[in-house]
Design brief:
Radius of gyration: 30 Å
Distance between the termini: 24 Å
Largest sheet: 8 strands, antiparallel
Helix content: 25-40%
CATH architecture of the largest domain: Distorted Sandwich
Oligomer: single chain
Strand content: 25-35%
Number of strands: 18
Number of domains: 2
């Protein structure tokens, strides 16, 4: 049992060391606050947005469909910036392409100390590029994300009492007119985008609608976060499939999908394109120069007779990975909150946390109460372990005597030990159960705290004002170390002197590890230790008092 306990403690220590290193990558001090996108130079931005190149347009795989040709170049044009403000987002639309170029999340500040500085999801200013683009592919005149739209207003605000706001852009050439209509709603991060194409010419018009997300992700930003940053697609066959940026060049996305979506995901936030679920779209990816990555979709051919109007629609979600919101937006979109291989434990933990939070209104107290519930569920298993340790503690003098008596005969010593275990009804591995059952719960809760945007900047009380980062005063880790020391004193000491010395240092080592873990995770461990001390002390007293 002693060796097994040492192995389990070593395994838990290794796991926590790995988590600590990952956490440091995420939360170590950085020269500037992390934002949602990566830098791009002025020259690179010019090449991507304003010149006549068309390599960032999708290329249909079928040759019998109309495509945008290189000969139909687009002159460099200067667009206007349209600002849109709702109760939850601030948006900038560029008339050059009609793109969503900037999008700030008003309820999610970059830092709790800077409540007026919101996270920017889309951005193409100050050397950054992350945008939503779209338009039509056609050999005939058509608006795409290089075209210059017109507008009658450059400032829009969702007024008090107003639930919907529309922004209309227009483009026309050679009798073909396109209206691009953005619809924003109160309290929503979901934007409806509609393209209305009217044929005022004397010939039939044909083309295909497309929409794409384009993002810069340079080498200097890779492997910074322990969480996943990259693309994702959803199909009826596989509701959530992650696409690494580095894999887009080697294995470009190219598949026909009905009732699916595409997305760019990152820590806490996601942007997604949700097309009409009744139509089949072709999903694609492209890798451009200067570390620009494109993930998009295009639809079936649209034919518009002279004097007729056709419409293409898509929904653009750009906001937090709140699971209750994402479930309503599209099937499987809530899976972008990725809890890893222990999702089957993490999801029930988050569900229980959310239910308790709806009652108590504080995530810290929710963690404490969830720990109590988990401890109650695991009570029979942990009680078996504590009873085994209590019996082991009671017979420790007899075990020491056996070791001394048969120190030169290992086989006889092991036989005597097994007889003692059988007589006293001791499971030599029973003391490992309390440690063993905590490891998966610990890891699952780690990912819940790391991935759930609901926990981001969530205050507890007193000096702990953000449960998703380390305790600024290191008080909780110290309490955890003390509780671990007390709990260790209730366990039978290892007969081996070397193991006994190592066990004495474990509370110090674990305290050092936990000093850099999120406060919410340390709060869970402290609560668990206190409950374990009470349970173990009670059981030990009962065993020692028994004849």
């Amino acid at each position: 049992m002693d060796n097994m306990r040492m192995i389990l403690f070593a395994a838990l220590g290794f796991v926590m060391l790995s988590l600590w290193q990952a956490w440091q990558k995420d939360y170590a001090p950085k020269p500037e606050p992390a934002v949602a996108e990566q830098p791009i130079s002025g020259t690179e931005e010019k090449n991507i947005t304003n010149d006549s190149k068309t390599e960032d347009l999708p290329v249909p795989v079928s040759n019998d469909q109309p495509v945008f040709t290189e000969q139909e170049t687009i002159e460099k044009k200067n667009g206007q910036r349209i600002t849109v403000e709702t109760d939850v987002i601030d948006v900038v639309i560029d008339t050059n392409g009609g793109d969503l170029r900037e999008l700030a999340l008003k309820k999610y500040p970059v830092d709790s100390d800077k409540p007026d500085l919101p996270i920017e999801l889309f951005n193409d200013t100050n050397g950054k590029f992350y945008a939503s683009q779209g338009g039509f592919l056609s050999k005939q005149p058509a608006a795409n994300h290089h075209s210059l739209y017109q507008t009658t207003n450059t400032e829009y605000t969702l007024a008090e009492g107003q639930n919907k706001l529309e922004v209309v852009l227009t483009w026309s050439e050679k009798g073909i007119q396109v209206e691009k209509v953005f619809t924003f709603r109160r309290g929503e991060y979901l934007i409806d985008v509609a393209y209305r194409i009217k044929n005022n010419s004397h010939e039939n018009w044909s083309g295909r609608f497309y929409e794409q997300l384009q993002r810069k992700h340079g080498k200097e930003h890779r492997k910074r976060l322990p969480t996943f940053t990259g693309g994702a697609i959803s199909t009826p066959e596989k509701r959530y499939e992650k696409i690494k940026f580095k894999n887009m060049a080697a294995e470009p996305v190219s598949k026909k999908v009905k009732n699916g979506w595409i997305a760019m995901i990152q820590h806490y936030f996601v942007s997604a394109l949700i097309p009409d679920k009744e139509k089949t779209y072709h999903f694609y990816s492209k890798v451009l120069e200067n570390d620009h990555y494109v993930l998009g979709l295009y639809g079936p051919q649209i034919n518009v007779a002279p004097g007729q109007v056709q419409e293409a629609k898509i929904k653009v979600y750009a906001g937090p990975k709140e699971q209750k919101i994402l479930k309503k937006v599209a099937p499987g979109l809530e899976l972008t909150t990725d809890y890893g291989v222990l999702w089957f434990i993490a999801k029930p933990i988050f569900w229980l946390l959310s239910k308790i939070h709806s009652l108590v209104g504080n995530w810290g107290w929710s963690i404490i109460l969830v720990t109590v519930v988990i401890k109650a569920i695991l009570f029979p298993l942990s009680a078996m372990g504590y009873k085994s340790m209590a019996r082991m503690r009671k017979v420790t003098p007899r075990m020491t005597a056996i070791r001394e008596r048969y120190s030169n005969d290992k086989a006889r010593m092991n036989q005597a030990m097994m007889e003692l275990y059988k007589t006293e009804k001791i499971n030599p591995l029973g003391g490992c159960f309390p440690i063993l059952v905590q490891i998966p719960v610990f890891l699952a809760l780690y990912w819940v705290l790391l991935e759930s945007v609901e926990m981001r900047q969530a205050p507890f009380m007193l000096w702990i004002q953000d449960l998703s980062i380390k305790d600024p005063l290191f008080i909780l880790p110290l309490i955890m170390g003390i509780s671990m020391f007390v709990q260790q004193k209730l366990n039978p000491p290892p007969p081996d002197p070397v193991q006994a010395k190592v066990m004495q240092f474990l509370p110090v080592i674990f305290t050092a590890f936990f000093a850099f873990f999120p406060a919410g995770l340390v709060l869970y461990w402290v609560t668990n230790n206190i409950l374990s001390i009470f349970q173990q002390w009670t059981i030990t007293k009962q065993i020692e008092a028994a004849k």
